[in-house]
Amino acid sequence: MAYDLELAKKLTIITPLYGRYEMTLRHLLYLEAVRCPFKVYITDGSFDDKNLEIIEANKHRFPHVDYEYHRYPAGAGLLELFKRMADTLAKITTPYVIRYDNDDFLDMDVVLQCVAFLEQDSKHEYIACMGQIHPFTTYKNKCFG
Fold it and tell me: Left if phi > 0, otherwise alpha if psi is -120 to 50, otherwise beta: which for 19?
């Protein structure tokens, strides 16, 4: 995978965590498999340390993922999520950011195309850009969607 790394430096991914431990490992393994070119901030507001334990026990499996793990006070409500997002956004220095949940799959090339589109907008008429969404689900090894 040959990504435009200069363009990739302009975007940061925020992955908020709240439980869903099995999704966290799958998420990081996917980022490794596609050689995610972006910096990833993981913000964990779970009630326990299982996500951190999973990340620490498996970090050798995703050596190419440039991530930072940040533990926050446990909280399930929207207010707690917004507080985590605000705190994280204050730390980010890239001009673009994307929220990327641990149960989603992003096409890194499409994300880079969105960044390129925003970068060529010299009048700053656009504040957001996204590709198509293709939702699907699996059940008993069959894909639906």
Answer: left
